[in-house]
Design brief:
This protein has about 300 residues and is α/β, with parallel strands linked by helices. It has helices spanning about 15-25, 45-55, 80, 105-115, 130-135, 165-170, 170-180, 190, 200-205, 210-220, 220-230, 240-245, 295-305; strands at about 5-10, 30-35, 65, 120-125, 145-150, 185, 195, 235, 250-255, 260, 270-275, 285-295.
Length: about 300
C-alpha cells in the first residue's frame, strides 16, 4: 500500500495521545514527524508527553519542539481539563530520548518539500506552529496536500459560548491558516463531540493488559466524568477525528464552507465564523467542514488501535 505521509502537530493531551496511537495503527498512514505546541499544557510538558507516547508505541518518530506561546497573546494552559501534566495524571516512564533540535516550523517545511506536495499536516492543538511555518515559508502551500485540523465549530464553543479551545488559544494563528491557500479540513465540535467513548467502552479497553490500555485506563476517568457532567455521552476523543478522516473519509460527512476567525470582538473572540447556516455567504469556500461521523465504526477502530499492544 502507498501510505499517506502525515505530520502530526499536537499538544498532548490524552485525546492527542489517542490520535497518535490511531495514526500509528491505521495502515493507510505513515507518521513522518510529530511537532509540539503549548496548549493543553506548557511546551515542556507537551513535548515530554509526545516522547512518552512514542515510547509507549515503541516507535522512534522524530519529535520537534514548536511555539511555547501564541503569536500575539499570553499563553493560558488547558490544565483545568487535562490535568497539570496534560495526561490526566497517568504515570509514564521518563522519555527514552530528547526532541530534535530543529524548530517545528522548519521541520514541517523541510519534510513537506521532501514529500513533494503529498504531505498531510494534521493539526491537533493551537495552530501557532502551522501559522509560523506558513509565514516563514510563503511557498509552503505548494508542498502540502492538506491541513486537517481539530478545532473550531460552526455552532457553539467549549471554551466560551462562541469559541473552541484550540482556536481561542491562538485565533491570530488560526486566521492565518484559514486564509492560506492550502486545502483545509476542519473537524470542529459538531463532529468531535459525536466521537466519544462511553463508560462501558472505556471499561472494555481497560480490561486489556497492554501498556497502551493501562495508560488510557489511568488517564481517562476524570475526563470521562467532566464530559458526562457537561451533558455528553462519554469521553469525546476530539483529536482522533482528523486522523481518522485522513485515512477513512467515507466514515464522515460534511460540507464546503467559508470559514474565518474572529480576532477582535470581546464576546465572539476566537469564534470560527462559517457561512454554513447563513443566508449571506462568503465569497469563497475555503474549508471542508466535517459534520457527522459513523460513531460505531469510530469506536471499533479506536478500540482496535488502543488494544494493539
Amino acid at each position: 500500500m502507498n501510505k499517506l505521509p502525515v505530520w502530526i502537530d499536537c499538544d498532548p493531551g490524552v485525546d492527542d495521545a489517542a490520535a497518535i496511537v490511531l495514526a500509528d495503527w491505521l495502515e493507510e498512514l505513515n507518521i513522518v514527524g510529530i511537532s509540539t505546541v503549548a496548549g493543553n499544557a506548557v511546551l515542556e510538558l507537551t513535548t515530554k508527553n509526545a516522547l512518552q507516547i512514542c515510547d509507549l508505541l515503541k516507535r522512534d518518530y522524530p519529535v520537534f519542539r514548536g511555539a511555547d506561546h501564541p503569536l500575539m497573546r499570553p499563553y493560558e494552559a488547558g490544565e483545568s481539563f487535562h490535568g497539570a501534566d496534560g495526561l490526566g495524571g497517568a504515570e509514564l516512564p521518563k522519555p527514552s530520548r530528547e526532541a530534535q533540535s530543529l524548530p517545528a516550523w522548519d521541520a514541517i517545511y523541510e519534510t513537506a518539500k521532501q514529500h513533494g506536495g503529498r504531505l498531510e499536516l494534521i493539526a491537533l492543538g493551537p495552530l501557532t506552529n502551522v501559522a509560523i511555518a506558513l509565514c516563514k515559508y510563503p511557498d509552503l502551500p505548494d508542498y502540502l496536500h492538506r491541513i486537517l485540523l481539530m478545532g473550531g465549530s460552526a455552532t457553539h464553543g467549549n471554551c466560551t459560548p462562541c469559541a473552541e479551545f484550540n482556536i481561542f488559544t491562538d485565533p491570530e494563528a488560526a486566521q492565518i491558516v484559514f486564509r492560506s491557500a492550502v486545502p483545509k479540513v476542519m473537524c470542529g465540535l459538531e463532529v468531535t463531540e459525536q466521537a466519544y467513548l462511553t463508560a462501558q467502552e472505556l471499561k472494555n479497553i481497560g480490561s486489556h493488559e497492554g501498556a497502551i490500555c493501562r495508560f488510557f485506563r489511568d488517564a481517562t476517568p476524570d475526563l470521562l466524568r467532566k464530559n458526562v457532567e457537561a451533558g455528553q455521552g462519554g469521553w469525546a476523543v476530539h483529536d482522533a477525528c482528523p486522523v481518522l478522516y485522513c485515512a477513512r473519509p467515507e466514515l464522515f460527512s460534511g460540507k464546503e464552507a467559508g470559514v474565518f476567525v474572529e480576532t477582535q470582538s470581546e464576546l465572539t473572540f476566537g469564534k470560527t465564523v462559517t457561512d454554513l447556516y447563513s443566508d449571506k455567504k462568503f465569497d469563497e469556500k475555503n474549508t471542508f467542514v466535517v459534520l457527522d461521523i459513523d460513531r460505531s465504526a469510530f469506536v471499533n477502530l479506536l478500540t482496535a488501535a488502543v488494544t494493539q499492544i
